[in-house]
Amino acid sequence: xxxxxxxxxxxxxxxxxxxxxxxxxxxxxxxxxxxxxxxxxxxxxxxxxxxxxxxxxxxxxxxxxxxxxxxxxxxxxxxxxxxxxxxxxxxxxxxxxxxxxxxxxxxxxxxx
Amino acid sequence: xxxxxxxxxxxxxxxxxxxxxxxxxxxxxxxxxxxxxxxxxxxxxxxxxxxxxxxxxxxxxxxxxxxxxxxxxxxxxxxxxxxxxxxxxxxxxxxxxxxxxxxxxxxxxxxxxx
Lengths: 112, 114
Fold this sequence. Notes:
heterodimer; A: 112 residues; mainly beta; six-stranded mixed sheet; 0% helix; globular; B: 114 residues; four-stranded antiparallel sheet; 56% strand
């Protein structure tokens, strides 16, 4: 099915480094959601964005809803080992029944 | 409270078995979803229920049969599954079906078909 372009696919970083990942789409979305998934668990919502241009923080995490409504980024500052996991962006469209369209995921590894 | 509860956490079933996955939420959400997820891949939508009625079926094989007994519960009945159906099955819910609503996921049910 339809997917967002999420990059990078994987990141190997040192503890304390900042992380940036982004998603782009050919479609306009009305909502952008960022999830983190750890092994054996379901996706956990990190940040929800509802308006173009919106910039929202949640602790060390910051995400923005792009002005064009076709992109979003997530930044993690001062990474720690428990940040390890797969991060998924997801966009919701206004039509097609409000389906959630997922990016392919960014797998983050943090070296202590 | 943003909790979606799924049972069982793990399920092993034979190809001739009939089993069910259960999902419950008490957030007053009126949209509930079933997703299937393979390792390290994004979740894939299977079904959407809105106000207890099936709204979207993503061409899922009939060996998967969803049921929404009431606004808090969602079941997925499984029958005559194939080994390739082994995956993490995720339930999710949101205030409403359409955009502008955040979707919350449960922890998932790991299904192994032998």
